[in-house]
Amino acid sequence: MNWKTENFNCASYRIPAIVYNKGVFLAFCEARRTSFRDYGEMDLVLRRGILLEKQVEWEGIQVIASMRGERTMNPVPIVDNVNKAVVVVFNTFPSNVTETDLLKEGVFNQTVFVMKSTDNGITWSDPQDITDTTLGKVEPAWTIFSPGPGHGIQLSSGRLIVPGNYYVKDPVEPGIWPQIKTAVLEFFDVLYGAVGTSNVFYSDDGGSSWHVGGSVPTANAGELETGKTIHANESQVTELDDGVICINCRTLGVEMPRVQAFSKDDGMTFTVAQVVDKLVEPGYTGSFMPSTKNFGGCQGSILGFPAPEGVPDGFSKTWALFSNPADKENRINLSVRLSIDGCKTWSAPWSLCPGPSAYSDLTYFEMDDGNGGINKLFACLYECGTTDFPYEKIVFQMFTLESVLEGTKH
């Protein structure tokens, strides 16, 4: 699937998200009008892919949300099997305001929307503003909130879960010396004194109303001997056995691996973030001072799916797949890893794209194998490119569970 072949006025496509529903892939992303960077006007676009016997037939680009003067960003799609709908949550910032501007000023300046499709992505409802019932209920106000990126999930209870992240920044105390101290500290801190945290929103009525769920408690990365705060960032969730939710999060520390936390109450509370040493992610190697914090890490995707038949009692009935650029330094080597024990341990990576690559999203589907059985399959929608540029195109790739087992066994 090549978005670039479409006759659409856009400089770059970024931030992929994908779900599968009743024989159709719904592939979302941001159509960035001016550049690949995180500012300027953006539209949310969709391509529907019809799954045929051995291939996917892709329809043209459909603009599902466009607001002039705004960045419509971070689409988080969820298949609602209870209400037979696809729900998408996204947010907007003014197009002339960057995340750095918001972090510096420490002010809330964004809107959160939801929209639905009851015909599998052919048509969509108008975006509904849900800011007041979510961000508007938070005190003190978060500096920035962003959903996802990538898919959300529906729990076995029917609850819809949208993962995301936010920043909180304490006000500067009055007086010249606190202001000088803050200015000096912020000079060496790309987050400008804010603390990043992962969290979830939830809906119990099919996406008509939304509420703020649990956040991942902030922890220090003592086991890494850094003493620095873990800034949990872009996140995704999956439901494991017995209704346990795992939230898997990007971190913003230099050369820090990913973290994850767990919830046993439908996402209302989470355990303290746990560092997952095996889930390495890109750091930031361009700092002119080794002690300076930078925007490290990269978004990743996590996906739960039914374990193969015949798994003995006592073993996890839900397995998990994870994708991200599996490299400690650069956004390269988009790979998947497998967990068969409830995200306690992870396999070695199996590379889907060894070259430049960045954001990704996973989905699961099943097909008859022609012999009375079921093939377990996956699709990954990810950013990649040539030379040193990982944002040249968005690629769709399908593969089987057998391929994952073979590729990750080393």
From TrEMBL:
InterPro entries reported in the protein's UniProt record: Sialidase (IPR011040), Sialidase_fam (IPR026856), Sialidase_sf (IPR036278)
Gene3D superfamilies: 2.120.10.10
CDD domains attached to this UniProt entry: Sialidase_non-viral
Alphabetical list of SUPFAM superfamilies matching this protein: Sialidases (SSF50939)
Sialidase domain residues: 38-363
Assigned protein family: Belongs to the glycosyl hydrolase 33 family.
Protein name: Sialidase-4-like
Gene name of this polypeptide: LOC100367150
